[in-house]
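anyone seen this seq b4? input:
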Amino acid sequence: MYDNLFFIILILGLILLSGFFSITESSIFSLQRYQIDLIKKKSKIGNLLESFIKTPSSIIATILLADEILNVTITSLISAKLDSLLRNQLSEQWISVIAVLITSIIILVFCEIIPKTIGVKFSRTLSVVVARPVGFLNKILFPLTLFFDFISRKLVNLFKVESEVDSVLSSSRITSLIDIGEEEGSVKRSETQLIDNFLKLDEIPLSKILTPVPDLFMLKSSTSKDEALRLATKFGFSRIPVYEGGSDNITGIIYAKDLLNFSGDNIIQLLRDPFFVPVQKKALALLREMQLMRLHMAMVIDEYGRLKGIVTLDDILEEIFGEIQDEKEILDENIFFENNKMYILGGTKIKEFNQTCLFAIHRESGLENLSENILDSQIPENQGIETVGGYIFTKLGRLPKEGESILNGKIELVVEQISNNRITKILLRRNLAKND
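predicted toks r here
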């Protein structure tokens, strides 16, 4: 009787140990990058988990070796026990079949499926618990794991297996995380759209977003300073390509501000070097280059050096934030400038405010903070309010007086005019004193 009790306790103990290693494997290797970063902020165990993920071969060998030893032991003990119990009733072949069936079910269900399901579901919590024990075991079994790691590496090299999974899956992982965040309410729909648009930049060639040559405004190199200034003022362009001979021969870029203090007449002296990029380049790559080089315009050429068009910083940002109207262009009737101040009508739709006005008022803060500032200043579109004037009224809880204002992220909305108990004119002002 005591022998049977000891046997049952021993088998249960081995099953629990095998389950522990299955939980260890699934919990550690189902961790996402952001989860490891969160653990690192709270505990040094995060560094240990990060080392497991970066060099997985050794820890995988340790886990599988220990798990395999336990599973073989479980199988051997159960087979031996069944043989002693059924030796007189069944042949050895039938005993072997029964032993295989029983051990397979026990190992598959209790040592693999259930533990690994638990490990994946509670990966962040359980990985912290199992990290130190498995790290200690890894040191003990180091000679064995080193041998198996060497064999596996040789086989991988033999079959020329390359590990490119991380780079291929990075965008899809990010998208999945954002979708989960939106479903749980931790990420706004507008934020999800911005991130999704940004990730798509890596797939968009410049040929899709460039302004083609027939639509370009360019100056001949022989244009006088006065004529160049007149045209720049008339059409509202701050940067203009300059060509000599044909349009394919771009000699430089002239900045309208450089013309103001220039006393000469030959604009060639003011030209800045053009930045040429191939038409096949992706929008995200160009955005990074523009950010590093502090450029706002690129000349797009084909393989034969012919000009296909130009891409500006605004062209790329529009792929992220949607259609953007420059403050020098004829804007929507709801948006206007007076004395270098930006105003909107009280009846401006909140959606239009988020998509158009915020970019215009924030662009002076620079590319580095642009996305953060716009997201911080957006007005929620799911509150049953349609206009910016209505939003101010709701926030204050009463009809405001002229000159009163509210803060919305990095934007101050100032009531400039009220007519017939309606807010009709609003001043937009960046609130530089507000910090996140």
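Residues 163-169, 327-332 have pLDDT under 50 and may be disordered. DSSP finds 16 helices and twelve strands in the chain. kinda curious what u guys think
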